[in-house]
DNA sequence: AAGATCTGCCGAATTTTATTCGGGGCAAAG
DNA sequence: CTTTGCCCCGAATAAAATTCGGCAGATCTT
C-alpha cells in the first residue's frame, strides 16, 4: 500500500511541504510527473490529510505553553464529547488529546503569559460543571518528530515500486 | 508587528499551506503580489517556521497512539537534555513535551498496535537508567486547533496595514 | 499647512512551475 | 513466448510564482 517511494515523499513533505514538485522529484529520485502523481494519490487515499504552516507560537505573542490534564465526572459519552467540542474551540487551545488512564483529556494550550494561563484554568475550565479535576504542567519545550518510517511492517502483498528505465 | 492581514494569512495557511498564492490572495482580499510579500516576510521573521504535510498516522500503519509521562531521576540538565535528544530520534515518537510538574516529559508516540506500545515502554524506555517512572495513557483521539487569534494583545506601536487604493 | 519621505499595495511582464498525456519498459500471468 | 497491467518517463501546454516600477495614504519636518 505504502512503498518506499511514498515514504520518501512523505519524509520530504514533512521537511518542507511547499517545496516545488521539481525539487521534491529530485530529492526522491524520480521524474516530476511521477512525484506529482504519487502526491496526488497520497492525498486522494487520505494518507496526506492536508498541509499546514508551522507557526512559531512565541512569535505571535503566545509566550507560555502548558499541558492541562483534566478529569471529567461522570465520564459519560455525553460529557466527554461535549467537553471535547467546547475545548477544541477555545482560542487558547493548540491541541486536544482524549486519553485513557486517570485523566480523560490532555489539553495543550498557548497563552500570552502566566496570567493568561491562570485565567484559562480558573475562568474557563472551572466554568464547566463536568470538570472534576485539573492538573497544569508548564511546557518548556515542544518538539515534533517525523513519523514516516515503517513500524514493524507486517508483510503485505503489495508490489514494490517499479524502477522502470532510468533514461 | 503582526497585523490583521498577517493573521488572516496565517489562518489560511493553517487550513491549506499549499493553496496557490492567487487563492490565498483572494481569500484574504489583497493582490497576489501583496500576499506573496507578506508570506515571505512572515517566513523571514520566523513567524512561519515551515510547512508540513499532515499525515494520517492510522493510514501509515500506526494504529495506536499514546501519551507517556516520564519522570527523570535525577532531573539534572544533563539527564534531561540527553533523554530529550534520545527520545526525539525514536521512530515511534511523534512529539515530545518537556514539562514542569510531577513529570518531566510527555512523549506522544504512534505505534502499529498494542504490542508495539508495550514494547516501547518495556524495551525502549526502561533501557534508560535515568527513567524513574513511566505512566502510559492511550490516546483515543487527537485534534489540532488553529492558534492564530490575538490573545489579550498588548497595545503595540506597530502601524495597521495601509489599505491603499483599491483599484 | 505644505512639502518631503516612507511604507505598503498594486498590476503587468517575465520566469518558473504544475499539469496533462501518449508511449515504453519491466514483471507477472497465461 | 505472448499478453496484460502497472508504473514511470519526458515533452507540450496551461497555470502560477516572482519581479519591479510606480502610486496612494500616512507620518514627519519645517
What oligomeric state is this? homodimer
Mass-distribution shape of chain A: elongated
- The total of beta strands of chain A comes to 5
* Average pLDDT reading of chain A: 90
Level-2 CATH architecture of the largest domain in chain A: 2-Layer Sandwich
Protein name (chains A, B): Lrp/AsnC family transcriptional regulator
Domain HTH asnC-type (chains A, B): 2-63
Keywords (chains A, B): DNA-binding, Transcription, Transcription regulation
InterPro entries (chains A, B): ArsR-like_HTH, AsnC-type_HTH_dom, Dimeric_a/b-barrel, Tscrpt_reg_AsnC-like, Tscrpt_reg_AsnC/Lrp_C, WH-like_DNA-bd_sf, WH_DNA-bd_sf
Helix-strand blueprint:
The structure is a homodimer of 167-residue chains.
Chain A: H1 4-15, H2 21-28, H3 32-44, E1 48-55, E2 64-72, H4 77-88, E3 93-99, E4 105-111, H5 114-124, E5 131-144
Antiparallel strand pairs in A: 2-4, 2-5, 3-4
Chain B binds a DNA duplex (30 and 30 nucleotides) through residues 20-22, 30-34, 36-38, 159, 161-167.
Domain HTH asnC-type (chains A, B): 2-63
Pfam family, one (chains A, B): HTH_24
Keywords (chains A, B): DNA-binding, Transcription, Transcription regulation
Structural notes for this entry:
The structure is a homodimer of 167-residue chains. The first copy, chain A, has 167 residues and is an alpha+beta fold. The first copy, chain A, folds into two domains: 4-44, Arc Repressor Mutant, subunit A, CATH 1.10.10; 58-139, Lrp/AsnC effector binding domain/regulation of amino acid metabolism (RAM) domain (Alpha-Beta Plaits). In chain A, 34% of the residues lie in helices and 27% in strands. Chain A has five helices and five strands; from the N terminus they run H-H-H-E-E-H-E-E-H-E. Chain A has helices at 4-15, 21-28, 32-44, 77-88, 114-124, and strands at 48-55, 64-72, 93-99, 105-111, 131-144. The first copy, chain A, has a four-stranded antiparallel sheet with strand order 3-4-2-5. The longest helix of chain A has 13 residues, at 32-44. Chains A and B meet through helix 1, strand 1, strand 3, strand 4 and strand 5 of A and helix 1, strand 1, strand 3, strand 4 and strand 5 of B. Strand 3 of chain A pairs antiparallel with strand 5 of chain B. Chain B binds a DNA duplex (30 and 30 nucleotides) through helix 3.
